[in-house]
Amino acid sequence: MTITDSDGPLPDPRAFVKATDWATLEHAYGPADESPELLLGLLADETTTQATALRHLGDPLHHQDSVYSATVPAALFVAAALMDPSTAAVLPNPIGRHEQVRAVLLDWLESVASAVGNEAEATMARLGLHLERSPASMQVRALRPALFRAVSAFLHDPDTGVQEAAIAAAVSLLDDPELVQHRSVLTPLVRDVLSTSADRSYRFVAARGLHAWGQGVGPLPAQDAGPWADRCSTEPPF
User: What is the phi-psi region of residue 214: left when phi exceeds 0, alpha when psi lies from -120 to 50, beta otherwise?
Assistant: First the structure.
């Protein structure tokens, strides 16, 4: 069994941004009118423009790990943009490492997928809340097969940072009932790559995934901030 593409092509990222009515969508601070120009900055040749776009993804489009109506098309845009050569640009992050923009985008997709995943749903239920009452969250859930198709292209990427970020994103996306058949294929990568990562947040994602898939041994480790948290900042570079 191999990981196969879901039906339907991903949109052209530039055309998709221009065709989306962002003024009718909202992020953490209100209407997302400014989002199309900022998101297109991810595909720019200037790293400072890309860094500004990455900050916009983190806040306000995914402020405090929340999902808004504007997060939905942003997620599809990010997935479509992953193959663009511009996302192979390398930028410094707040913890002193250099990594590809593509790895940061994959981390962002992992965070968005986690926000609508099974664990998030269970946590909300314990608080008397219901994920299915959030239209934006349910729309992100519906996108998971398409997001997985984009992410799976980087599961064997030669860049370690990109590969680890892709595997982590895939773990969270495989909460989707349509994708659970891919868990057995992904398990060796989670064990051999993500579980041995130098990044403890990736190791937590690996342990969480294996535990949920019935492949874990022993209790889960203490939860750490997700991979996106170490790479997102409201201050430069991003």
Answer: left
Q: Which stretches of the chain score pLDDT less than 70?
A: 1-8, 94-96, 217-238
Residue % of the chain over a pLDDT of 90: 83
Contacts of 1 (CB under 8 A, 6+ apart): 181, 184, 185
What is the Cα–Cα distance from 206 to 197, expressed in whole angstroms?
Answer: 9
What pLDDT, in 10s, does the model give residues 97-109? 789 999 999 999 9
SS3 per-residue string spanning the chain = CCCCCCCCCCCCHHHHHHHCCHHHCEECCEECCCHHHHHHHHHCCCHHHHHHHHHHHHCCCCHHHCCCCCHHHHHHHHHHHCCCHHHHCEEECCCCCEEEHHHHHHHHHHHHHHHCCHHHHHHHHHCCCCHHHCHHHHHHHHHHHHHHHHHHHHCCCCCHHHHHHHHHHHHHHCCCCCCHHHHHHHHHHHHHHHCCCCCHHHHHHHHHHHHHCCCCCCCCCCCCCCHHHHHCCCCCCC
The alpha carbon of 119 is separated from its chain's Cα centroid by a whole number of angstroms, namely: 16
